[in-house]
Design brief:
Rossmann fold, GMP Synthetase, Chain A, domain 3, five-stranded parallel beta sheet, 24 strands, alpha/beta, EC 6.2.1.3, five-stranded antiparallel beta sheet, 15 helices, AMP-bd_C_sf
């Protein structure tokens, strides 16, 4: 019996690169400060690297870690891994060395790609590749994998739609990050939803400045690629460089989380440049900040709600449709407010946000018990609270108390993780970490602490203590000391009363 029908339905991330090389061979696919690649050249590099990875033993199901700022090579590794059916583990370079080591170990990474800035930060014992020409002693140059010895080959995409494409490590709820498994189909479906909603085509030029280890950065980079468009890649956000690129590269698409929008608005007021090419922006910010920027730029801002676990956006709407809301349910997503019995609640009822559909992730890497708590009664339980009004607009209301989350500048920080670190300080008796408004980052971290008797600890001492042990964006910006923390009837710290102190 001819079994070829079993492969007829396969379409994965690698196929995006192949399609673009056929249809838009000479159009720019990716441009950074190092080089400019057409779609044809990008596919050639992707296939050559896949050949090199195969030569050193990487195959389907293996994990490949990346510790680097944004660059064209980041997209190349994604494509090469997809060609082999390997799984990419992009790592947040803002994490502490200890946190990076944990992710490398938990994901069982076989190989690590790093830029020269972050090479050597971890205790990784596997094969290490440096993107840059200045290669540390323990690292192999990236160019060697692009010039492997032996017969060349054209990789045949074998990844099925539910096969893992990447592991995105989310914030630590109970002491350790969790790897969310996203499949090829998760990413491709999310790309199509974004493109269809925002009208993204092969003529779009995306300013790729959000980290390629974050789901929004991944979604917009690959949405642009899937539609045949161009990625203009920045290592990281820099306001002067961003505005210069918008003008010189005629950027049409970008994303923004606090404080990007307010920073760009002020720069445009102080030193105007031509940003008339910018058509679409998506992200999160206050209605006032959004309106201030769109008035100057003439662009359209799309508000969203989503998670790493939903492969990107669950809602996506024009900010002018309902200012202050998180938008309406997107076209390939199912959204509901769930009651305590996981039943859908009527409009304007506060409850947990539940999501279902093809964008929901495959589960947590090696964390079966967490999957049982997350997937219940046909819904992905987000841990977020919200309301849906009669017209279908979602109003985000924060996290469930046991899953409270702080989001400084778009990063995710669980109070429990910061509290656990603070509690290891010998001068601290107990503490409570809360989110507070921050004019620059949208939300900041505040620690309310009770000192042990006769202990002298300053706020700055504690801030530096935390910053030395976990990612520095997780350290509190404010520390206050109190005689005692308020408690509820069960004797637990009452977080709401702490916020009112």
């Amino acid at each position: 019996m001819d079994m070829s029908h079993q492969t007829c339905g396969i379409y994965g991330i690698h196929d995006i690169f192949k399609r673009n090389a056929r249809l838009f061979p000479d159009q720019t696919a990716a441009k950074d400060k190092h080089d400019t690649l057409t779609h044809k050249a990008l596919l050639s590099r992707v296939n050559t690297l896949a050949w090199g990875l195969s030569a050193v033993g990487i195959s389907k199901g293996d994990t490949i870690a990346i510790l680097s700022m944004n660059r064209n090579d980041y997209l190349t590794v994604y494509g090469s891994a997809a060609a082999l059916g390997a799984i990419v583990v992009p790592i947040n370079w803002r994490l502490s060395d200890k946190e990076i080591d944990y992710i490398l170990d938990d994901s069982n990474a076989q190989i690590l790609f790093a830029d020269k800035i972050h090479a050597g930060r971890c205790m990784f014992k596997g094969r290490q590749i440096c993107f840059d020409n200045e290669t540390p002693a323990s690292f192999q140059p990236f160019q060697e994998l692009l010039s492997p010895k032996g017969p060349s080959f054209t990789p045949q995409s074998t990844a099925g739609k539910n096969d893992p494409f990447c592991l995105l490590y989310t914030a630590a709820v109970a002491g350790a990050p969790r790897g969310a498994v996203l499949s090829h189909d998760n990413i491709i479906t999310s790309n199509l939803q974004t493109a269809l909603t925002m009208g993204i085509t092969q003529t779009d030029r995306y300013l790729n400045m959000l980290p390629l280890f974050h789901i929004t950065g991944i979604n917009l980079a690959f949405t642009t690629l899937q539609m045949g468009g161009s990625n203009v890649v920045m290592e990281k956000f820099n306001p002067e460089e961003a505005l210069a690129l918008i003008e010189s590269e005629r950027i049409t698409l970008m994303a923004s989380f606090p404080p990007i929008l307010t920073t760009l608005t002020q720069r445009l007021i102080d030193s105007p440049v031509d940003v008339s090419s910018l058509k679409n922006i998506t992200g999160i910010d206050s209605p006032e900040n959004i309106q201030a920027f769109t008035r100057i730029s003439g662009s359209r801002f799309w508000v969203l709600y989503g998670q790493c676990e939903t492969s990107g956006f669950v809602t996506l709407s024009d900010s002018e449709d309902r200012p202050g809301s998180a938008g309406r349910e997107a076209m390939i997503s199912r959204l509901a407010i769930l009651d305590e019995n996981d039943k859908e609640s009527p409009p304007d009822t506060l409850g947990e946000i539940g999501v279902r559909g093809p964008l929901v992730f495959q589960g947590f890497w090696n964390k079966g018990k967490l999957d049982c708590a997350t997937f219940k009664n046909g819904w992905h339980h987000t841990g977020d609270l919200g309301q849906i009004d009669p017209e279908g607009f979602l109003w985000f209301k924060g996290r469930k108390p046991e899953k409270e989350l702080i989001k400084p500048g778009g990063e995710n920080v669980y109070p429990a993780e910061v509290e656990a670190v603070i509690q290891t300080h010998p001068g601290i008796k107990e503490n409570c970490v809360i989110g507070v408004p921050d004019p620059k980052f949208g939300e900041g971290i505040k620690a309310v602490c009770v000192l042990n008797t006769s202990t002298a600890v300053t706020a700055q001492d504690l801030i530096e203590f935390v910053g030395e042990r976990i990612a520095r964006y997780k350290k509190p910006r404010q520390v206050v000391f109190v005689d005692s923390l308020p408690r509820d009837a069960n004797g637990n710290i009452d977080r709401n009363k702490v916020k009112a102190l």
